[in-house]
Protein 1
Amino acid sequence: MDDEVKQDVDRMIAFIYYESREKIKELEIEAREKYNTEKARIIDEKTRILRTEFEEKLKLLKHRKVIELSKVRRQQRMAILKEKEHIVSTLFEIVENRLRSTKITKEMCRECPEMLEPVVFCRNDDRSTVKKYINGDIKKIDDEFIGGLVLCSKDGREVCDNSFLTRMDVMKKRYMKHISRCIFERTGTSERLESQCQDG
């Protein structure tokens, strides 16, 4: 009888032990699944946060890049314009220096309108030429006019400014676009300036 009770108790203990082990396995599996699920959720959440931050930073970098490129291009354009202005200014300085040594011709005298004994302003070097073709009171022209002729009627109502300075100013106003096109487009200077700015 005692043996039977002992066997029943042993079987019961073995069953409880077996059930406990199975329950432990189930709990371990469930815990592992929950851990993996939570781990995947956390990784996914962190990944989304990092991706969002990365995209925002990328957008910011792209925006900054656009701004910087625009700034660089604007600086390049300004540098090119400044260099073009310098080239044109240098060109007119060369022309001005040449005009200072250019003498008045017979044709220039005949281009002036006829006036009755006008006051004629010219350089001293041109007095003899002017005297041959224009009958008037000859006086020295101011150096700022570079050279050429300025005629003024006795009453001061009629003035013909044919000085080299005025001719240059008229040429600048009328033909500056054409002059720039000849200098920069036909010679390829614009492309070289742009290349220099980009290299710099």
Note: Residues 1-101 form one domain.
Protein 2
Amino acid sequence: MHANSTPPKIIPMSKHFLENNTVPLEQYTDLLVFDIDNTLYQSNINLIGRVISQTFDKLGINDENARARILEECKAEYGFSIKGMYAYNILDYKTYYDVITNIDYKAVVSPDPDLRHMLENVHINKICFTNAESIHCMRILSELELHGVFDYVLCVDHSEPNFICKPMNESFDFLEQLFGVRNKITFFDDDPRNIAMAEQRGWIAHHITSMQTIKMLLLEIRQAEDRK
């Protein structure tokens, strides 16, 4: 058990939340922003692939070509396949919720003590910024033993019609308004479209392709802190 295992505060991205929180929750000067899936654990685990496969199983869509076509079209149109599946009425929230609550996370992901140590050694506020549901986020962070590392998790409420998610401009607006910071954000994500959107806004954006990549970047940030 780590000394600080306090779960982060969960905030679903929504226009309603911003309307009721007009003053930034925090006034960060610098901020490290992390995606979760395929960024804080090895992408070859393919957890999201398992979630999507089980979702199609529940929907009774068994043809592999049909699955591939749906994912491609939804991602091309909406930037996030699951959002497109909701928009086209292919997927309903109950089906998706049933899938993510029955995934055996412990069998798929495991802690990386080196990653936690490196995250804790960087003395800059850290949050997660993800398209995942809150229950998925918390279970992943728990299995990775990363509770206590992040202040907040900005996630998606899939039960809300027309939810906000990456790479939509509104999701990046949400983060900037919530924390009162824009041009001193360092962002880590595995999706090139999210990276491109962040770069357009002046964020320092790093495309994460492996755990080695993220660890190398964290080491560089820590070394830069030491030189100050």
Note: The beta strands are 9-12, 31-34, 126-129, 152-155, 185-189, 204-207.
Protein 3
Amino acid sequence: MINLSNVQKNYGKKVVLKGINLTFNENEAVAVVGSNGCGKTTLVELVANLIQPTEGEIVRQENLNIGMQFQDGSWPIGTKLSDLITFYKDKSYKKTEEFKKLVEAFDLEGIISRDISSLSGGQRQRINCFLSIINEPNVLILDELITGLDLEMQIKLISFFQNYKKEKKIILLIVSHIPEEVEALCDRVIILKDGTVYEDKNIEEITKEYGTLRKRLIKYYENEK
């Protein structure tokens, strides 16, 4: 469980988030959506303990292991996935069934020993997904999971993480601009607006009222104009 109580985050004189009261529970998949600049990235960085609030309190249960999949990663030229695996795990990990399963799921077989800087954006995205769960997190943050991927890999990754969240019963937190991705993976949607929680509802409530999340977000963006 992670609880944010009256959280505010400032950068200098700019207030990025304010009055945030949210709880994230085990075995729950939550999406954070909203227009650019509304505070999505700042919120997930606070949840992940990468930054600290200016005001308010964040309480996390003990022994949380947080994994994050970023949109892209920066590694020195010459870095290979095989090097990163050795950094995170001992050499015997490559012989495990879990490793083989993940390599197949993320289609990594042909790129494990290649220089990551030479790979396409989609290939690096798949590596980021792999690294985000290599240490078996109980909190997983996915940032624009399927952006830049072809349709086949989008479907494959959504299916993988649907099964992963059910099996591991983790807190899954997703930042996305793609409503269909959110509907496929999430139980709950938080809409941010101007650094505040504009709406926090279960996906069933939203689809019952609007038909689809896309239609709900169209209404939201119309109100932004």
Note: The chain has eight helices and nine strands.
